[in-house]
Amino acid sequence: MSEIRPLARRNMLGWAVGDFGFNIFWQTLNLLLLPFYTDVLGLNAALAGTVFLIASLWDGFADTVIGAIADRTRSRWGSYRPYLIFASPVLVVSFMLAFLTPEWEQGGLFLYALLSQIFLRTAYSLVSIPYSSLSARISQDSGERSSMAGWRMFFAFSGGAFVTFVMPQLVQSLGEETQSTTYVLAAGLTGLISLPFFWIVFANTSEPERLREANPSGFGVAASVEDFRATVHMAMANGPLVRIFGCIIVSSLAFTMTNKCLVYYVTYYLERPDLVPRIVPFALVINLLFAPFWAWVARRIDKRTTWLVANVLSVVAYTLFFFSTSRDPVVASFFIALISAGNIAYQVLFWAMLPDTVEYNAWKTGQRHDGKVFGIASFAKQLALGINGALLGGLLIWIGYTPNVVQSEETLWGLKAIMALIPLTGVLLSGWLIWGYPLTRDIHRAIVEGTYDATR
Known about the structure:
Growth Hormone, Chain: A
């Protein structure tokens, strides 16, 4: 039996602020790297999409391995906190290398983009998986985790808005005529800003002594076999976790279509490339403003119902956006705001619901496997994003997109269809999956306190 103790606000914010640092890298990879590949590096759109697919598949594999390694790590700072200090400088270096612009043929550019992105994603996971795993350690209150996820997303999109505004400005100020070094310097400067946020997390969190041996320890072949069996068992026994995996796959696959097309939409549909440094961060600002709102709603009703309410808002937003013919940036910004307000709910709720499945897993299997849960969840997300990148690259070619020229009306219509109709499908699928999610707040509390009776 375990007593649920409240988490101090200082510790909650001290943990959540870390995602400001992470999203300096993540939002750049998610929003800016594909246009960088096609419009600066000169990589064919289909090859660029393939880079994202292969790198994401690797990322998913690496996430599961890193999650298992983090679970087995033992140090005087705990299992997860050391990675925030010792692995984060490697992340900055990998970020810089991803923006080199070698003057090679398509095959060489493809290989360099692939290897540099694999390095970046691996370094990112080496810090982010332990960070996410901490959310299941520092609080065991389901409602409190909703607040944690809300604040995490607030800081996440603050970091995203920051980098999507600052990176283009740095590139312009450093001088685009020296492209071989401009993007590397801009990445280095923004990457260094992330480090203090990771240090803050390290200083403001602790891993409870009673949970330090809640997972197996030791490394080696036998440990790897044991972890593989535990992962398979977890996938079969943890129904709530499987539903969340399904939701994040369809959500990430669908909604990232909107995010990744936003730069193209502003540049070619609105014909206002000068507004990219403003509208893209604007969408992220809406995300950060609504993240605490959805966390508040989830605490007052429940996470499943909140997800379904967000589904309704997303359906309305995407439908209005698709059928609007206006190219007024103000009108476009309204629809982007509406879409962003709905889509942020899924990220808040995903990170709020995922830690609850750790205790459910301990109840079903006898071990928590914090890092494995977050590693496999990240694998599901990366798989969806990889498929998204490859699919988007192919779709851009299918609709006739050609970089740096005026697009035809058919291409522009296709761009809007990619941004709206695919996400609508994802909304419907995620609603169907979450409808049967069984892990309510009361059931989770009973599991944590050791009083849950599944036969009642």
